[in-house]
Specification:
This protein has ten helices and four strands. With 291 residues, it is of the alpha+beta class. α3 runs antiparallel to α5. It is globular and about 55 Å long.
């Protein structure tokens, strides 16, 4: 028998938005915030270690101070990560609460540990992945809880940057060796927001093995980073086919971003170096503007 609550569950997932405009002067009850944090509490984690703590900032003066930290963080992006389509963080001032999701790295000791020198690197890398995935699950659960309460939020990863994390730890009194992997501002949206771009389901689902026809080529990633990223990040359309200027923005990449298959040849590529941007486009020009 079908779960009668399933439609509501799917609706909440689809309604979740990363919102950066909140109504000023609103409040939310502690009971609602507790329900939201309870969602985070029930997130899965490696070895059930629950390697997180949640700091809820809801006093106006503290919201102001946290906002000031992120205003400086946003300016550093402008100064030192040129080309990234960053947004100002002034909207934080209108939140009803800000949840800081802390990761406690000590708990990684509870994950599988190598007893053979040859396997130390493998298990160390895997334990870092378990740690980060556990925190990601908690962050997502909290965001879904926010949506279920009729509120909205976004996920600021900037708290994980060393400089920002040191400022937050000093302000909020947590050990500076813990990290604010997720900062979640919560508020009432100032206006309804449509869905952001999502890849077509047919393009990302693979049945019983990896389908090389759906492999996204290196050059496609280069195009996204150098040219398409700001539009995919901030336009209020789930489908790029709804963009009036789709052909202009996508050009030869239209089928790769909107069709069922991204790689008609089916050929895979060897591992490439993506440790830094590689292509020339509008983002490159912004990076080089002040050089």
């Amino acid at each position: 028998m079908a779960n009668k609550n399933a439609p509501l569950f799917y609706e909440i997932i689809e309604q979740r938005r990363s919102t950066r405009k909140f109504e000023p002067g609103r409040k939310v009850s502690k009971a609602a915030i507790n329900r939201i944090i309870e969602c985070g509490r029930w997130a899965p984690s490696g070895a059930n270690v629950q390697c997180w703590d949640f700091i809820v900032v809801n006093e106006p003066n503290m919201i102001k101070k946290v906002t000031e930290v992120f205003l400086r963080q946003a300016q550093r992006l402008v100064d030192h990560a040129k080309g990234f389509p960053a947004v100002k963080k002034t909207y934080l001032a209108n939140t009803v609460a800000i949840v800081i999701v802390l990761g406690d790295p000590r708990w990684k000791v509870c994950f599988p540990q190598s007893t053979n020198d040859e396997w130390v690197e493998e298990y160390t890398d895997n334990n870092e992945a378990i740690f980060l995935c556990s925190l990601g699950a908690a962050i997502q659960n909290i965001q879904l809880g926010v949506t279920a309460e009729g509120l909205t939020s976004s996920w600021l990863s900037g708290g994980g940057e060393s400089t920002t994390n040191k400022e937050l730890s000093k302000l909020l009194n947590y050990p500076d060796w813990m990290t604010a992997y997720g900062t979640i501002p919560i508020g009432y949206p100032i206006a309804s927001q449509d869905r952001r771009y999502r890849r077509p389901l047919e393009q990302l689902i693979h049945w019983n093995g990896y389908n090389s026809l759906k492999y996204r080529k290196n050059s496609q990633i280069d195009f996204y980073e150098s040219t398409l990223r700001p539009f995919a990040m901030y336009r209020d359309n789930e489908l790029m086919t709804d963009w009036k200027d789709m052909n202009e923005k996508l050009g030869v990449w239209a089928e790769a971003f909107t069709g069922k298959e991204t790689n008609p040849s089916g050929k895979l590529e060897p591992k490439a170096d993506f440790s830094k941007p590689r292509a020339i486009g509008p983002a490159t020009k912004r990076r080089k503007k002040d050089l």
